[in-house]
Automatic annotation (TrEMBL):
[4Fe-4S] cluster binds at C262, C265, C301, E308. Its cofactor is [4Fe-4S] cluster. Belongs to the IspG family. Converts 2C-methyl-D-erythritol 2,4-cyclodiphosphate (ME-2,4cPP) into 1-hydroxy-2-methyl-2-(E)-butenyl 4-diphosphate. Keywords: 4Fe-4S, Iron, Iron-sulfur, Isoprene biosynthesis, Metal-binding, Oxidoreductase. PANTHER family: 4-HYDROXY-3-METHYLBUT-2-EN-1-YL DIPHOSPHATE SYNTHASE (PTHR30454), 4-HYDROXY-3-METHYLBUT-2-EN-1-YL DIPHOSPHATE SYNTHASE (FERREDOXIN), CHLOROPLASTIC (PTHR30454:SF0). The lineage of its organism: Bacteria, Bacillati, Bacillota, Clostridia, Peptostreptococcales. One of its GO terms (biological process) is terpenoid biosynthetic process. Pfam families: GcpE, GcpE_C. It catalyses: (2E)-4-hydroxy-3-methylbut-2-enyl diphosphate + oxidized [flavodoxin] + H2O + 2 H(+) = 2-C-methyl-D-erythritol 2,4-cyclic diphosphate + reduced [flavodoxin]. Binds 1 [4Fe-4S] cluster. It comes from the Bacteria. This is 4-hydroxy-3-methylbut-2-en-1-yl diphosphate synthase (flavodoxin). The gene is ispG.
Amino acid sequence: MSEKKAVLCRNVKIGGGAPVSIQSMTNTPTADVKATMEQIRRLEEAGCQIVRMAVPDMEAARALYDIRKQTDLPLVADIHFDHRLALEAIRAGMDKIRINPGNIGSQDKVKEVVDLAKEYRIPIRVGVNSGSLEKDILQKYGKVTAEGLAESALRNVALLEKYDFDDIVISLKSSDVKMNYEAYKIVNDRSDYPLHIGVTEAGTPSRGKIKSAAGVGALLLEDIGDTMRISLTADPVEEVLFAKELLAALGIRKDAIEIVSCPTCGRTEVDLEKIAESIERRIHEVTEKGVCGIKIAVMGCAVNGPGEARGADLGVACGKGKGVIFSGGEILKTVPEEKIADEIIKLAGEYDKNTGEF
Ligand code: SF4
């Protein structure tokens, strides 16, 4: 967790040493309140902490009043070009707005938005994107560059600071993983505002998860980033589930269940892929019982298996047609291959965090 300035988005603290929060964005028409609310509820159930909605027109802005009444989840309105939409979104009770002050229009319009955000005590995210860099910056650098993105973000921040506003979160996303990483590094060094990180337009789940793991993961490992969104061309719930997995894999999120499984080799004598997949697929049965923060190891043989399995809270080292289940370094039982996944799910669900026993 980085030590940036703290900003509050309803009840979620961004920066100031707070854990990295997970956000996503609805892909229903915002004016369709019913469909949008259904998606917000699914996102919340999946563990989304902040939900953003596109506000392309006044009909969408007005729908925000209804949406606000139906959820307490922190809500963010995403606005481009029309400052009146930003004003309406703030009045509708949004907890943060995302704008580019540079494309909102005249200084007076920016000031109007800033003044209302101050009155309602909500933060503004300055969201710069590689697809919308200012012309003069493009000319200066000849093309989109990390330096250019950083310059644009800091310039947009200055437009808000000019009106004595510092309740700011910054994002400066690119779909180019390396440029994205370098741009965030520059702004992280030059600014004290919390950072919303992500790789934009990362793509379909198979490609997008790789790009996001590389881009967002690299930043998080350097303690850069205070809130994150994984962008996938998919159901937004998938963004949240992957964000949770990524934070768990990086050891940042302590409330997730970490599952490690060996890559298998010529020594494997069970269908380990099937066992590991079955455990992963059913792990929600364990989390639904309130169990979290444990490590499960699924290992294919008696060579490296027992060591890794012993080091986990719950582990299995497989032999020919069977699995030896360990907990806290002790052998619990031996079960036939076809019962391994069932037994791991059952035992994990019985974990008592006070005693550390299954
Ligand atoms: Fe092979 Fe055993 Fe290592 Fe799995 S744990 S990769 S089966 S040596």
